[in-house]
Amino acid sequence: MKEITPQDVQSRLENGEKLNLIDVREVDEVQAGHIPGITHIPLGLLEFRTNELDKNIPYIMVCRSGGRSGKATEFLQSQGFDATNMSGGMIAWEGEVE
Question: What separation, in Å, do the N-terminal and C-terminal C-alpha atoms of the chain show?
């Protein structure tokens, strides 16, 4: 499984790169604070919403600690998507939160 550190994600965002971040946490977790510009798809709904995603676009999966986003990454990769897990999740995130 491909992984990226929260620091790498933050640095790429700060350099103006447009990243496709998918936060797979539950609604209340995302409302409590998330990376600006994320797409929110709770892990339990991911398999039903893959039609909203593009197999030609790389996605970075985000959750609280990296476990659920790891499952989401493995699932998307098995469906032919280019997905990468943000290791450490929001616990390790030091960048901007909204």
Answer: 28
Q: Shortest CA distance to 86 belongs to which of 68, 62, 67?
A: 62
15-72 pLDDT per residue, tens: 999 999 999 999 999 999 999 999 999 999 999 999 999 999 999 999 999 999 999 9
Range of the domain at 70: 3-92
Question: Tokens standing for 65?
Answer: 């600690």
What CATH number did the domain enclosing 88 receive? Answer: 3.40.250.10
Look up residue 24 and give its DSSP letter.
-
Within 10 angstroms of residue 71's Cβ, the number of other Cβ atoms is: 17
pTM comes to: 0.97
Total of domains in the chain: 1
Residue 42 lies in a domain: yes
Nearest of 2, 1, 5 to residue 91 by alpha carbon: 5
DSSP conformational letter for 64 = S
Catalytic annotation, residues: 63
